[in-house]
Design brief:
This protein has helices at 2-10, 15-25, 29-43, 48-52, 60-72, 75-131. By secondary structure, the chain is mainly alpha-helical. Helix 1 crosses helix 2 (15-25).
Length: 132
């Protein structure tokens, strides 16, 4: 949504209209509703920072960045920065999951091999014990 907002603001759309379009293009219903509410608040004259506060869409540090950018008139650059920061955070999370998933799958595979090995050899040893 942040990259969309940056693009729309660069095309000189008013902030409330950019929020409406970003809401319409949002895939998540919660995000769509929050952006629509923020759009209505901004259209009513509320600053963006106040419209986004308590929505839990962004961490407070990124909200502060957007508030400062709104006051300085560089909102599109700030939305680009926020978009890059969110993408980097997502990449770190994906990498962390990939790092943990490899060993977890190896452990599961090892347990399956051990189970099948025991399922094969225990009856074999029992049969040999009965024959001896």
């Amino acid at each position: 949504a942040c990259a969309t907002l940056a693009l729309l603001l660069r095309r000189s759309l008013p902030l409330d209209r950019a929020l409406q379009l970003a809401a319409a293009s949002a895939g998540q219903p919660r995000l769509r509703a929050e952006l629509q509410t923020a759009s209505e608040a901004v259209a009513g004259g509320e600053p963006l920072l106040e419209a986004l506060t308590n929505k839990q869409l962004l961490p407070p540090s990124l909200l502060w960045l957007l508030g400062a950018a709104e006051r300085s008139g560089t909102l599109e650059d700030a939305f680009d920065d926020v978009s890059r920061l969110q993408q980097a955070a997502l990449q770190r999370k994906v990498e962390r999951v990939r790092t943990l998933l490899g060993p977890a799958l190896e452990i599961c595979l090892g347990l399956m091999v051990a189970f099948f090995g025991l399922a094969l050899f225990v009856p074999l040893f029992q049969l040999i014990g009965k024959l001896a």
